[in-house]
Amino acid sequence: MTPFDARQFLANLTQSPGIYRMLDSHGETLYVGKAKRLKARLSSYFRGTLNAKTQAMVARIADIQVTVTRSEIEALLLEQTLIKEQRPPYNILLRDDKSYPFIFVSDRHPYPALEYKRARRRHGDGRYLGPYPSSGAVRESLSLMQKIFRIRNCEDSVFAHRTRPCLQYQIERCSAPCVGYISKTDYRRDLEHAVMCLAGRSEQVTTELTEAMEAASRSLAFEDAARLRDQIQHLRQLQQRQFVDTEGGDADAFALAEGEGVACISVLTVRQGRLLGARHHTPDNSLGLTTGELLGDFVSQFYLGQEREIPQEVLTT
């Protein structure tokens, strides 16, 4: 096999932006990268001091293919597309999630449940709240909403065949709409309050519940007033625990820590000023990238390598 002639390759290389693919002797892609100036970036692999991991990759190069793009943005998008398709061994690779966890509210049932649902994207069969960073974050949110608003969590087939309340009603986790213990209007009100909380509008819900509690007290409906008081207390505890100062907006925060040759990147997800949860990743830093380079490549692939919504703010540290 003829060794790769880096000098000849670089001699005629353009300074335009674009992407490059490094191939081994079998034509398999070793690495995909982007560059603002292709010649300057690729020259750095063959001049100066390289770390051991990069040297090992360069030693396997049999060919380099370049694609010139009109801008850095176009190069970034093409890079992430190729990484996702070819999954080169020296690139940072995220697990390709086939679906994301949502909380789902059906439009097709008179007493909809709050359901855990995994989907690639939102469909037109109801309301999708999320996506959440993990299934644990979804289940925690569902548990809180059922505790505060007593929204059912049973399957529709179970609901249709109930003749008496189940255990969830006995432990005050459901209002038993299956046997008519709550009107459709009241259930829909509670469901809407739960959805508002999940969408980050718990302050508005607290205000509405406070007004309803005061009205119940004036009309001497003390049991209703006590129930509303308990809901308000639970909501205030939830607000204190989950408050994040993003002025009510959406943000993702990325934090990287390294130690003993291992890197961990934590991603905190905030929607409507509410912390939904965190997810942790341990990317394989095969080329020994610097902290800034590793985090930059990770963030690019996090959003562009998979179909994710980009929030108003992206914070890195």
Q: What can you tell me about this protein's structure?
A:
Helix 9 runs antiparallel to helix 10. This protein has a 4-stranded mixed β-sheet with strand order 9-8-7-10. Strands 2-1-3 form a 3-stranded antiparallel β-sheet. A 3-stranded antiparallel β-sheet has the order 5-4-6. The chain has 11 helices and 10 strands. The mean pLDDT is 86. It has 3 domains: 81 residues, GIY-YIG endonuclease, CATH 3.40.1440.10; 143 residues, no CATH class; 66 residues, no CATH class.
Summed up:
The protein has 317 residues and is an alpha+beta fold. It contains 11 helices and 10 strands. The strands form 3 sheets. Strands 9-8-7-10 form a 4-stranded mixed β-sheet.
Approximately how much helix is present in the residues? 25-40%
Number of beta-strand segments: 10
Estimate the global geometry from the Cα principal axes. Answer: elongated
Helical stretch count? Answer: 11
Please write the string of helix (H) and strand (E) elements. Answer: HEEHHEHEEEHHHHHHEEEHE
Largest sheet: 4 strands, mixed
Kindly estimate the percentage of residues that lie in beta strands according to DSSP: 15-25%
Radius of gyration: 27 Å
The low-confidence runs, each spanning 5 or more residues with pLDDT under 50, are: none
How many discrete domains? 3
Describe the protein's topology.
Blueprint lengths: L5 H6 L6 E6 L5 E7 L2 H6 L8 H8 L3 E6 L3 H15 L13 E7 L7 E6 L6 E4 L5 H15 L6 H5 L6 H4 L13 H15 L3 H17 L3 H21 L8 E9 L2 E10 L2 E8 L9 H14 L8 E4 L1
Helix pairs in contact: 5-8, 8-9, 9-10
